[in-house]
Amino acid sequence: MRIDIITVLPELLESPFNHSIVKRAKEKGLVEINIINLRDFTTDKYKSVDDYAFGGGAGMVMMIEPVYKAIEKLKSEREYDEIIYTSPDGEKFNQKIANQLSLKNNILILAGHYKGVDQRIRDHLITREISIGDYVLSGGELPAAAITDAIVRLIPGAISDEQSALSDSFQDDLLAPPVYTRPADFNGWKVPHILLSGHAAEIENWRHEQSLERTERLRPDLTREGENG
């Protein structure tokens, strides 16, 4: 898989992709992640990539020309399965979307910035708009990093225990059950006896029941979404 990210602030994305699971996936050759500096595509001598909005109003807007040039150059080199724009008004990112994207070969992400990008880019070049939550960040770099991390960890081989990814929260619209480790008794706080029983089938049933209970109590909206889907 290849993931290209166009950004105004490439330095913000250096650390997230150089540690942990994403780093190991890169070293194994499972994913290639490229950070593209949008400022390399502007003709402005000050390397500006933003301008005032037509019609007035507060804030600046990502200019159409450098974004267009960056996307078109990348598209000339390969075909992208998705060209994603990170925006507060995009579809809410969730595990199902991460699962879908993990099956793609080439993904291009445009990290939003300022008051957003010229609408013509969204109308003509973007194939999918994604938000990671109902709040506004200083830029789309952190959402791009979150989306990338969620995708990469699902690539076969990225996690040594692939079953671990399949049992994460939000798979099958359920929260993960509680987990425990040694010691079995700490300060009188005891691990549920069923987990020490060695009965695999009963443990699996217990975990499923816990997932159902936790989801209904903490995130009942997930249960409703599963029923509606």
Identify the strand order in the major beta sheet: 2-1-6-5-7
Show unreliable segments.
none
Strand content: 15-25%
The secondary-structure class comes to alpha/beta
Number of domains: 2
Largest sheet: 5 strands, parallel
- How far apart lie the N and C ends? 29 Å
Helix content: 25-40%
User: What's the order of the H and E elements?
Assistant: EHEEEHEHEHEHHEEHH
Helix tally equals 8
CATH architecture of the largest domain: 3-Layer(aba) Sandwich
Protein described:
The protein is α/β, with parallel strands linked by helices and 229 residues long. It has helices spanning 20-27, 64-77, 95-101, 119-124, 141-152, 162-166, 200-218, 220-228, and strands at residues 2-7, 32-37, 50-52, 60-62, 82-92, 106-111, 128-131, 185-186, 189-190. It has a 5-stranded parallel β-sheet with strand order 2-1-6-5-7, with helices on both faces. A two-stranded antiparallel ribbon has the order 3-4. A two-stranded antiparallel ribbon has the order 8-9. The longest helix has 19 residues, at 200-218. The chain is elongated, with a radius of gyration of 21 Å. It starts with a strand and ends with a helix. The model has no long low-confidence stretch (mean pLDDT 92).
